[in-house]
Amino acid sequence: MWEFCISVDGSKREILNFILQKLEGEIKDCNGVLTCLNKGQSVDVLIACNKFEKNRILMLIQEIISEVICYYYKKDFLIRNLQVKIVDDISKKAFICALLYFDNETDIYIVNKYLELSKKINIESFFNFRLLSLKRKWQELVEIANQNEIYLYKDDTFLELIKFLVDNIEVKNDVVNIMPLDSSYGIFDSKFDIIEPSKNMDEEKLVTDLIALSPKSINIYCSEILSNKIKTLICKLFEKRVKFMHNSAN
């Protein structure tokens, strides 16, 4: 049997749940073992599988750690260090989300450059001691925003900045469709399979989901459900990518 251990900060339950969710199905498919050992301030995720499955599981672990660092750790870094006082909550979350995914390919490259997977990795230690260049990169991004804070109070300037960031996020999906779903709406892929249901008309989440999905084209089939504010924001951020469709496609 081949064994590996991922050590997670015990206070970061969201990260632990994400790792377990990503690993559970794959470990089960290869008849492996997945368990957790609580060690006080940290939690060890213990993995065991047949040796011939080692490379496949290692590739998955590499992908998981890259996503943990480039999403959860970067998001926490941005929230803690950004000093921009933005009153509008939706615009603030859109700004943070755009910064989060901006230059994501380089972030992942840096993580993988320093990532060494032998028998165990402590994610907290890896981030704090091996990824200093990545933290410097994020700090430079934050400082640019903080130093130009005064210009971000102007709505047009602020939206143009978010749009610039959104335009420079690599396209990840060809088409996404926003369609009615129960009493709310959901995001569907090009084959109209559900990607993300939206509960309780969560328009903030809709905007950040679209930034994260980074589609080439956005088809909106539920214009009457969305507020004018959100429709205007989506159109400004994604411009020519947005099309308003008839409900006959539902």
Description of the molecule:
The chain has nine helices and nine strands. The protein has helices at residues 13-29, 54-81, 89-101, 104-114, 123-130, 132-147, 155-167, 203-213, 228-238; strands spanning 2-9, 33-38, 42-49, 120-122, 173-181, 184-188, 194-198, 215-220, 242-244. The strands form two sheets. It has a five-stranded mixed sheet with strand order 7-6-5-8-9, with helices on one face. A four-stranded mixed sheet has the order 2-3-1-4. Helix 9 links the parallel strand 8 and strand 9.
Topology:
Layout: E1 2-9, H1 13-29, E2 33-38, E3 42-49, H2 54-81, H3 89-101, H4 104-114, E4 120-122, H5 123-130, H6 132-147, H7 155-167, E5 173-181, E6 184-188, E7 194-198, H8 203-213, E8 215-220, H9 228-238, E9 242-244
Parallel strand pairs: 1-4, 5-8, 8-9
Antiparallel strand pairs: 1-3, 2-3, 5-6, 6-7
Helix pairs in contact: 1-2, 2-3, 2-4, 2-6, 3-7, 3-8, 7-9
